Amino acid sequence: MTETRAFGSWQSPLTARAVTAATPRIEGARFVGADVWWGESVAEQAGRTAVRRRTADGDVLDVLPPPWNARSRVHEYGGGAWTATDDGILLFVEKSDQCVWALEPGEEPRVLTPADHGMRFGGLTWQSGQLLAIRETHSGAAVPHRDIVRIALDGSGVTSLVDDSDFLAHPALSPTGHHLAWIAWNHPDMPWDRAEVRVGRLEDGIVAEWTTIAGEDSSPLQPTWADDDHLLYADDSTGRWNLWCEHLSAGLERHPVAPADADTGGPLWVLGTRWFARLHDGRIVAVRTNGDDEFVLIHENGAVEPLPVPVSAEICVEDVRGSRVLLSGASADSPAGLWLVDVDRPADSVLVHGGPPPWGPGWMPNPRAVTFDGPSGPVHAFDFPPTNPDFEGPDDERPPYLVYVHGGPTAHRGGAASGRIAYFTSRGIGVLEVNYSGSSGYGRAYRERLRGQWGVIDVEDVAAAATAFAGAGAADPARLAIAGGSAGGWTVLAALVNTDAFAAGISRYGVSDARALAADTHDFEARYLDGLIGPLPEAEPLYLDRSPLSHPQRFRVPLLLLQGAEDPVVPPAQSEAIRDALAERGIPHAYVVYEGEGHGFRRAENVVNAIESELAFLGAVFGFDTPGVAPLTLS
Description:
It contains ten helices and 38 strands. It is α+β, with helices and mostly antiparallel strands and about 625 residues long.
């Protein structure tokens, strides 16, 4: 029998620890022999990235045991920190020294690259018997040197193949090894602003000359060889990331491959992300994003066949073999997982790791795509209503809502219910995830609305969405809280000082001072604010005006600040400055700093504490009990 109880105080089996354990963070996957290997951030092991394998018999074993940690720091966000040879040699970047190591079955790891504290590797790929990677060398120059390298497995050295730009990604060897294709871009652009596909001719294994075949005024991604004369890649020159095929010997003639009003591609935040792959028989599998994700099979005649797969958001094509595909992603009833899909029998998909949570689908909210009118046009969002099979709210009460703001700000959230979202919705707190202007997943024009307007349009969008949502009766307008991390934390803070739409805020490692961010942040994002706000020093008045820290007198509502002590992207000083401003004005707040954490929390005890702190904060501010979670004292 369903019990009526005030929203926010519902009892739930979803503890913060259970949510943390049931939400794996997949860090790449591939077929190795008869097994499937994948990387996984293990919260219970201080957030280290393990590499694990599932055998044909279903056993799960560690390939990379503790304390080894496969994590790259190239571009700070890393990616592509491991790969493997076909015969089962693990090749990985060890977090502590950023060297590349090799681990053969039954042996101890051996180092392949020289120990140099200024050198980092990432984007590892094993192609045609060669290990390729992106190398990043910090030598005190304003911009670190980056090049594509080949690493010898016998430890004899590292060979530079090509550089010639500030940033590089997605190296791809042609089938005969005569050409190399890659993605390149330069400051002040981000890879989703402008980039290039380059193809170089190899002589003695090194690029002798190269030419740009796509990009300059668009942002191509993921070059993939069909054969030595045809190159596939994604490009948004038409306003959407669609697939193209370049015929190299025909004067660089290109033609679209099954164009669609959806994106096969996304922001290149981490190295090694893949949105499509070519199968052995010429067919192509691809992710198409328009709010949610769709997984499709493109036949050689151009016919497109949507495939019914268990994931609908955050899909990555990890690897292919024959007609089989490894997909990572999430769905409405599965917070995260790795799946093995045979495109000829997609209904028989096999769960490799993760998948449906132990508490059952009845506790997962059914996401609903919603659109609101904003000052700059439509604003897209997903609504996750309070959901608990044992409780319902009073008829005369509307639920409190958390308005989630993703980071980036060039990022995207699909209609997949995470364990974190279900933690709140199962207690009677709704969640509204807003893909404000600037988000990916809706085309280039939507993404570029934010250009020069960060701190303005993102704030207007989240306020308009929250106000309209509550005005329609779906949420209590007096109990709207806004939460976000990093760039999302900036929008949280800016919304609190520039609007009266929210009664509370939660900022995780949020940006409070745009000038300090421009001065302190790492090279990958060193010029990001040129496009989001404007170039310095000309735009300094805008930086000052839009920074929440410039307006401490406008903070009026309670605020929870969560911060990693070793964050290189948004240093603790940013959160501490807000804490001090709140204390000076007597605004109720709490500041929680986590030792050993960087930009985002990975250690189980810290992830658990952060989730529980958010719930306790909402209970303290909105006046409801939080069964099983200790109250939070606000200063």
